Amino acid sequence: MRNQGRGDEEPWQSKFTNGRMHAGDTVQIVVPSSGGYGDPAEREPELVLADVLDGFTSLEQARETYLVAIDPATLELDPGATEQLRSAKRPAPS
Q: Which stretches of the chain drop beneath a pLDDT of 50?
């Protein structure tokens, strides 16, 4: 989108050529987020916390998907509870 919210707003496709920009123009590019790579339960807990603090994921998703426990009152990692969550998911050694 070129100049979103202005009188000269112009929708642009995600792939285009010959789009002309002028001094003072703005462009907004919106892309989906990725599904990631690998087992979410192996993501570093500190990175999951950063995603929660940045609004990329929720406390509930941190716990359910990434198996990371974050205290909702302090927004701090709970390493012991995280280890319990992750231990419960790991297969027993054979």
A: none
The pLDDT tens digits for 26-43 are 988 877 766 678 899 999
Cα distance between residue 31 and residue 84, in whole Å = 35
* Residue 94 is assigned to a structural domain of this protein: no
Which one, of 27, 29, 21, lies nearest residue 3 by Cα? Answer: 27
The fraction of the chain above a pLDDT of 70, given in percent, is: 93
Do 64 and 27 lie in a common domain?
no
d(CA 63, CA 52): 11
